[in-house]
Structure formats: structure tokens, C-alpha cells
TrEMBL record:
PANTHER family according to UniProt: PHOSPHOLIPASE-RELATED
Keywords: Hydrolase
Pfam families according to UniProt: Hydrolase_4 (PF12146)
Protein name listed in UniProt: Alpha/beta fold hydrolase
Species: Sporolactobacillus shoreae
Active site per UniProt: 94 (nucleophile), 193 (charge relay system), 223 (charge relay system)
Length: 250
């Protein structure tokens, strides 16, 4: 059986400005590690946690809920504050982007960068297919016997709809609170997004109340934009946005 090396949270220490980097559903901290390295080389402290049930066998994923993941996000933010950081921005991919928006009306963030963040629940069938595909690939990489894979996948498939329903509740909750977001926002959307409704970016742009807000589309990118063909441009754009912020501590 092949041993899958579990991902680890990363902390790249830099200056007094901190960026919390949040991965997506079924992803892990590796999704945002390259952005973290890029920003760290330019003076930012970057922290990339991962959520409960992620980066471990998929049967562990379906034992967790979005409430658990939000708790992990709050713990990560608190970790930065307890480490002395008072100037914090939050960037997130997919469900991490949803959490970045929630951070925008929960914490005194300097800015937020939601990337390919869903604002409606019309994508549940695609999420289901993607999650089941992730689970099966994980199992096959472990080189488990086919019969064992089928048994374990049946259990995961049975529990996945309940988890996706809970994700839908989270998305609707954040959507209903977008008007509370006033922090500067750089909204990132992949034009070729195969996982979410790309119109989510327009919804977010129009419903948040941030005086400073930008929306940029990346024409050649798919959902995991942080690892895609336009990642170099994305890195530069996020850096430019962060550099434009007021980082003074109020």
C-alpha cells in the first residue's frame, strides 16, 4: 500500500503584515503554498492551515462539517493574533474564499481575497462528483484492493450528500451577510471554472459594501486557479492589492 504523506500547515515568517491563506473543499494547504512563498519573499508573514478532515483519508472528511472548518479558520486567525499580528489579510480559494468573506464581517481584517468562491448552491452536483472523484483517487493511490475501495467508497458516498448540504447552508449564510463586508476586497474568478457558477463573482462584487473592491477574471484558468496557468499573474495581482491597502493599526 502506498503511503500518502499528509499535508502540513505552513508558516512563513516575514514582517508584521500577515496573510491567512485558506484552501478549498477536499484541498489542503498545498493549494495556497505557492502564493504564500511568493508573498513571504516580499516581506509578508504567511500562514496556511488546513481544515479538519482534509489531507487525510476521505472517510475522515465526511466525519467533519463546515462548522468544524470555520472553527479551524477562527483558530488560525487567533493564532496570528496571539503571535502579535494586528495587521491581517485573508485570502481563500473556493470554500476558503467563502471563509475569507465570513472573516470580512467577523474580524477586523485589512483586506480579503476570495478566489473562485461560490455564492449560490447551484453547483451541488458538480461538487458531489468532484468530491467522490477525489475520494476514489485517494483510495486508488493508496493501492488498496478493489473490493476494499468499493466498500469504503460506498460509505463515503452515503455520507457525502449530508456534508454537501451543510456546505450549502454555509454558502447561503455567508451570502445573506455579504452586505456586512466592508473591508477592501479583491475578487478573483476563473473564467473556465468547472466547479462553481462563475456568476458568483459578480454576486459578491455587487452585494458586499466595501468602498474599495475589485473584480478580475482570468480567462485561461479553471477552478483551482492558484495552481493554474495564470498563477504567476495571480500572485502579482494579489501582491499589488495587498500593497495598496491601509495597513495602519486602528
Amino acid at each position: 500500500m502506498a503511503k500518502i504523506r499528509p499535508p502540513r500547515p505552513f508558516l512563513f515568517e516575514g514582517g508584521k503584515r500577515a496573510v491567512l491563506l485558506l484552501h478549498g473543499f477536499t484541498g489542503n494547504s498545498a493549494d495556497v503554498r505557492q502564493i504564500g512563498r511568493f508573498l513571504n519573499k516580499r516581506g509578508y508573514t504567511c500562514y496556511g492551515p488546513h481544515y479538519s478532515g482534509h489531507g487525510v483519508p476521505p472517510e475522515e472528511l465526511v466525519k467533519t462539517t463546515p462548522d468544524d472548518w470555520w472553527w479551524d479558520v477562527q483558530e488560525a486567525y487567533q493564532f496570528l493574533e496571539n503571535s502579535g499580528f494586528r495587521e491581517i489579510a485573508v485570502c481563500g480559494l473556493s470554500i476558503g474564499g467563502v471563509f475569507s468573506l465570513k472573516c470580512g464581517y467577523t474580524f477586523p481584517v485589512r483586506g480579503i481575497v476570495p478566489m473562485c468562491a461560490p455564492a449560490d448552491t447551484s453547483n451541488e452536483s458538480r461538487l458531489y462528483a468532484g468530491a467522490i472523484g477525489y475520494a476514489r483517487n485517494y483510495k486508488m493511490y493508496q493501492e488498496e484492493p478493489r473490493s476494499q475501495i468499493d466498500t469504503e467508497m460506498a460509505a463515503v458516498s452515503e455520507k457525502m450528500p449530508e456534508l454537501l448540504s451543510a456546505i450549502g447552508v454555509l454558502i447561503r449564510e455567508v451570502r445573506s451577510n455579504l452586505h456586512r463586508v466592508t473591508a477592501p476586497a479583491f475578487i478573483v474568478q476563473a473564467a473556465l471554472d468547472e466547479m462553481i457558477n462563475p456568476d458568483s463573482a459578480d454576486i459578491i462584487y455587487h452585494e458586499i459594501q466595501s468602498k474599495i473592491r475589485q473584480l478580475k477574471w482570468y480567462g485561461q484558468s479553471t477552478h483551482v486557479i492558484t495552481l493554474g496557468t495564470e498563477k504567476a499573474q495571480l500572485h502579482e495581482d494579489i501582491y499589488a492589492f495587498l500593497e495598496s491597502l491601509d495597513w495602519s493599526v486602528s
